[in-house]
Write a structure and sequence with these properties.
The structure holds two protein chains of two kinds.
Chain A (H helix, E strand, L loop, with lengths): L1 H10 L1 H40 L2 E6 L5 E2 L22 E12 L5 E10 L1 H5 L12 E4 H6 L7 E7 L17 E12 L18 E5 H8 L4 E2 L1 E5 L2 H4 L7 H8 L7 E2 L7 E2 L6 H8 L10 H11 L3 E4 L5 E5 L7 H12 L14 E13 L2 H4 L10 E7 L8 H11 L13 E10 L1 H4 L10 E4 L1 H7 L6 E9 L4 E11 L44 H10 L5 E4 H8 L8 E5 L4 H5 L13 E4 H10 L4 H8 L1 H21 L1 H9 L4 H39 L3 H4 L10 H23 L7 H6 L2 H5 L1
Parallel strand pairs in A: 4-8, 5-7, 17-21, 18-20
Antiparallel strand pairs in A: 1-10, 1-23, 2-9, 3-4, 3-6, 3-10, 5-8, 6-7, 11-12, 13-14, 14-22, 15-17, 15-19, 15-22, 16-20, 18-21, 19-20
Chain B lengths: L2 E12 L2 E13 L4 E5 L6 H8 L7 E6 L2 E2 L5 H10 L1 E4 L11 H6 L9 H17 L15 H13 L5 E5 L7 H18 L2 E5 L3 H5 L3 E6 L2 E4 L4
Parallel strand pairs in B: 3-8, 3-9, 6-7, 7-8
Antiparallel strand pairs in B: 1-2, 1-4, 4-5, 9-10
Helix pairs in contact in B: 4-5, 5-6
The chains are: A alpha+beta, B alpha/beta.
Chain lengths: 757, 229
């Protein structure tokens, strides 16, 4: 039979030409569309590969920074609690900034400023360590600023603080630091010119600064906010499932637990990796971890979470606080879990319940009710008033200014220097769990305040008097809102000799001035240093930030709680061991604090698959063309076999079954389709190149000026040919069905139409 | 009895009307017998032949060949019947133009599943048959390279490849000149003698008809003994 088909094709090639061309057209369009898809996908993949290079997983620290000493031996092994960076990991300081040519003629904003060392360059697509201590630019910013090697530029980055600039009391506007540099290298895609943590069609403007230089400039010390690892399938178990770390931990005998029920407490989420204490115990047998100092490791972990442990004066116990001023909610939750959970594998017991407090900086403490000094605004709780002002630009009148204006209008001398005041400026007030405190009156009601002797003397206040707290909170878009709340003084007055009364209540505010210069403080909102009296300076010198008044914790949290937290410290009573408090590390979920471990490579490659398969998209666009070509193929095929109806009749007459005759013709058609589809592939290559040229040219606006790679995928070609052949074959089968219903005699006579009647 | 038509009726549609061609037609032929069927054009001669060869079906009546009632056979069995029991010779040879003479002769054997040895045997028989019809020098030629007489002889060889018991020839000399027609008639007579194959031949040529053992005429939609013999 093969020779029958071969001979027939050779003999009937003229009539078959139409079928071949029809199928070639279908194949051209289908394979072409799929090739365009492959090329777009291949281009995106190449871009993704260029973006992440040899990076596998990455630890992203959110707003926080982790220690990353240049000396690899000193690098924190404890980082394994959240992440397993390996020996070849690269620590990166990733910041946002701007860059300006030294002549000021060109400027680029939204510049990705990356502090890198040699380990980073080893992760680049080319993998070559090109760290030469110079500043490198990627091609995009070099082109934008018209900079070449040897030119000079200035890079500006915001000096990072311990906490968000949007948080209240976060200090003055962040200072910009400038890195002046000479361009040492301009890096292309092969050398991480496209490096970015997030996918984008266009690479970010990137300036690579030597890590140590950037760390020094921004004053962070040896810290980074991103740690990148090699994509090592041997260590991380390949790219499948993203469970690299999990599988690694499983090798060490850890089981991933998503949720654990803690006896006697609410359910808390177990840290998504493992409890550090258990980890350290397990790792004792692992060579890399056997020398790990558990206590040091714990403290180190706490430093990542920016938790500080301090011993209180007068042997009053230990305190948990944060350089971020407010304790994040996940840390408070972890403290609660620490206080109520036994760790069976740990000899360290749970600490006793901690004393919660929230110390806030108030603009003024005024004698009298708020209604005495200011009109009330509508819709505000009875005891609380508010006025708004912008944190930027010209400052509106502060409470002090208003008070001075009021005093002046009443014919009174200015407050400064008077024996008793109507208002004490700039003070700390602590909201405290009064019954648990041991020194604040347990029955302190929501509308009551207990004051210190110093304040009582300053305002000539006594139990039963009304006092108003004037304070600022941060609204949306860094808008400052000034509020007031009136309280009644509760007896007794707290004497200054009270052992609990010290400056440790004051959180670690930034820019806190030295002992003798209270008036130089820049707390981050309008601060009128002229209101600072001599006695205030003396208080500052003697008592620093010792609170002058105490209110109920609930009320304090209502007034000053915010999205960064509603506690500034948790205190543990005398006798509490430090390690009992440090045990909190075992309960902190790094993810809740913004730490994330992501498989950058998997993410990048996954992004090239989603959401649109360009091959299918283009094939869909070309659907009608493909369908038309298939119909044409079917009709032309039917035409050719109608011409050969007698041949079919003869075969039936000599004993071939209908099925066999039809199969013979369809096999011939399939061979023709295959020839046509193969011819079509050559056309598809030209079609693809034309479409890619259009995407990079006429349609470049839609593609962000991307240069597309021409990617040929054998699977696509084979699939496209197969698809075209099957489609043509289906069309042929459909179109030839009727013909083979005729009797052999009718086919032999060639009078199919008549026989059909 | 090798083949038999019993009270067969067949008609063709012509527009909305049905034109009867055969009505209550009876026919029989013994093994090795030769029969010529004559009659005017359109009288139903070819139809009768198609019915005997299972290329068409009667509206009523029975067609029995080699003891098989054709109406009771499935499509596959009918195909096998055509392949093994009967051989066809058409007025137009219907040789496949893209195949050689030898390949054309072998076409009916391609309908069967056969071993390599059987295929070799078919090929040997095809060569012998072509030698017998005087085409041994034309084995690899295409039909287009043969004369009209040669093509028809090749068609005879094809009809005989499966050693059928009944040869159905539909005006086999219709497209040949007198000389070639006479030669073909002699060839058929010889085949009948050598292969002992029964022949039913439809023809307009009296000389050819006279070479058959019996001559029947289709008259009034029925077969009757020819009076012109």
């Amino acid at each position: 039979m093969p020779s029958l088909i071969r001979n027939s094709i050779r003999h009937n090639w003229r009539t078959h030409l139409g079928v071949v061309l029809g199928c070639a057209l279908a194949s051209l369009v289908l394979v072409g569309a799929l090739m365009v898809g492959d090329s777009v996908k291949g281009t995106l993949r190449a871009q993704a590969e260029a973006r992440v290079g040899k990076i596998g997983e990455a630890l992203l620290c959110g707003e926080r920074f982790v220690p990353w000493p240049a000396d690899k031996a000193k690098r924190p092994a404890v980082l394994a609690r959240m992440f397993f960076p390996g020996k070849d990991a690269a620590g990166v300081l990733l910041m946002q900034g701007s860059a300006v040519r030294s002549d000021g003629k060109a400027r680029a904003n939204k510049v990705q400023v990356v502090g890198v060392d040699g380990d980073f360059w080893k992760l680049s697509p080319s993998g070559s360590d090109k760290a030469d201590g110079s500043v490198a630019l990627n091609e995009r910013i070099a082109a934008q600023l018209s900079l070449k090697v040897g030119d000079e530029l200035s890079v500006y980055v915001e000096k990072p603080g311990a906490f968000s600039k949007d948080a209240p009391l976060s200090g003055e506007e962040a200072a910009l630091v400038t890195v002046k540099a000479r361009v040492g290298r301009i890096v292309g895609d092969e050398d991480f010119g496209r490096f970015a943590l997030t996918a984008s069609q266009v690479p970010p403007n990137t300036v690579f600064v030597p890590l140590a230089e950037l760390q020094a400039k921004v004053g962070l010390g040896e810290k980074v906010n991103v740690v990148l690892t090699f994509d090592d399938p041997l260590i991380y178990g390949g790219g499948e499932g993203g469970g690299g770390l999990d599988s690694l931990l499983e090798r060490f005998g850890f089981r991933k637990v998503n949720k654990v029920s803690l006896a006697g407490t609410r359910d808390i989420r177990e840290p998504d990796v493992i409890w550090s204490l258990r980890l350290f115990e397990k790792f004792q047998g692992v060579p890399e971890f056997k020398d790990l100092n558990k206590d040091a490791a714990l403290r180190e972990t706490l430093s990542y979470f920016e938790i500080r442990l301090g011993d209180l004066t007068n042997n009053l116990g230990a305190e948990l606080r944060s350089p971020r001023i407010f304790l994040d909610a996940p840390i408070v939750a972890a403290a609660r879990a620490n206080e109520s959970t036994k760790l069976p594998e740990s000899p360290i017991t749970a600490p006793p319940p901690g004393l919660d407090s929230l110390t806030y900086f108030v603009t003024a403490i005024e004698k009298g009710a708020a209604s005495d000094s200011e009109p009330r605004s509508g819709g505000i709780p009875a005891a609380e008033n508010q006025t708004r002002s912008a944190n930027q630009g010209s400052a509106p009148p502060t409470g002090d200014q208003a008070l001075r204006a009021k005093d002046t209008a009443a014919g009174m001398p200015p407050l400064l220097g008077s024996l008793h005041s109507q208002s004490t400026p700039y003070s700390m007030v602590t909201a405290i769990d009064a019954p648990a405190s041991g020194f604040v009156q347990a029955e302190l009601a929501d509308d009551e305040i207990q004051i210190t002797r110093w304040l009582a003397d300053d305002l000539d206040a006594k139990p039963g008097d009304k006092l108003t707290l004037r304070y600022s909170v941060m609204g949306e878009r860094r808008e400052l809102i000034e509020k007031t709340r009136t309280f009644t003084v509760l007896a007794p007055i707290i004497e200054m000799e009270e052992p609990h009364l010290d400056s440790s209540w004051m959180p670690d505010f930034p820019n806190v001035p030295d002992k003798d210069s209270f008036s130089k403080w820049k707390p981050g909102f309008p601060f009128d240093s002229k209101r600072i009296r001599k006695k205030d300076e003396e208080y500052w010198e003697k008592h620093r930030g010792t609170p002058k008044a105490f209110v109920n914790l609930k009320v304090g949290q209502e007034m000053w709680g915010n999205r960064w937290g509603n506690l500034t410290s948790i205190r543990y009573p005398a006798g509490t061991k430090r390690e009992q408090v440090e045990r909190i590390a075992a309960f902190i979920d790094p993810k809740a604090l913004g730490f994330r471990v992501v498989n950058l490579r998997e993410q990048a490659l996954a992004a090239t698959d989603a959401p649109v398969d360009f091959g299918q998209l283009f094939a869909s666009f070309s659907f009608f063309l493909i369908a038309a070509a298939a119909v044409l193929t079917g009709l032309l095929f039917t035409f050719t076999i109608e011409q050969r109806a007698a041949e079919a009749g003869l075969l039936l007459a000599v004993g071939w079954t209908r099925k066999k005759v039809r199969r013979l013709f369809l096999k011939e058609g399939a061979l023709l389709a295959l020839i046509g589809a193969t011819v079509g592939v050559a056309g598809a290559v030209l079609y693809t190149k034309a479409v890619l040229a259009a995407l990079a040219g006429a349609w470049s606006g839609a593609t962000g000026g991307t240069t597309f790679l021409f990617v040929v995928n054998t699977g696509t070609i084979v699939g496209g040919i197969l698809g075209s052949v099957l489609m043509a074959l289906f069309a042929m089968w459909l179109a030839s069905r009727k013909l083979f219903k005729h009797e052999a005699s009718a086919l032999l006579s060639g009078n199919i139409a008549e026989a059909a009647k | 009895m090798l083949a038999e038509l019993r009270n067969v009726t067949k008609s063709y549609a012509n527009g909305d009307t049905s034109v009867p061609v055969l009505e209550g037609c009876d026919f029989s032929i013994e093994a090795g017998e030769t029969v010529a069927i004559v009659g005017p054009s359109g009288s139903g001669k070819s139809t009768l032949l198609n019915l005997l060869g299972a290329l068409d079906k009667p509206e009523s009546g029975e067609v029995i060949v080699a003891g098989k009632n054709l109406a009771s056979l499935t499509a596959e069995q009918l195909a096998e019947f055509r392949n093994t029991e009967v051989g066809f010779i058409f007025q137009l040879h219907h040789l496949l133009p893209h195949c050689s003479v030898l390949e054309n002769v072998l076409v009916p054997t391609l309908a069967r599943k056969a071993s390599k040895a059987e295929r070799t045997a078919f090929r040997e028989r095809a060569v012998k048959l072509l030698e017998a019809v005087g085409l041994s020098h034309r084995l690899d030629h295409r039909p287009g390279q043969l004369s009209g007489g040669e093509r028809q002889r090749a068609a005879i060889a094809r009809a005989l490849i499966a050693s059928p018991k009944l040869l159905l020839a539909d005006e086999p000399t219709g497209a040949l000149d007198v000389e070639n027609a006479a030669r073909l008639a002699e060839l058929l007579a010889e085949i009948n003698r050598v292969e002992n194959v029964a022949i039913v031949m439809v023809t307009h040529a009296p000389e050819l008809a006279r070479k058959m053992g019996r001559v029947l005429e289709l008259r009034g939609k029925k077969l009757v003994e020819s009076t012109g013999r």
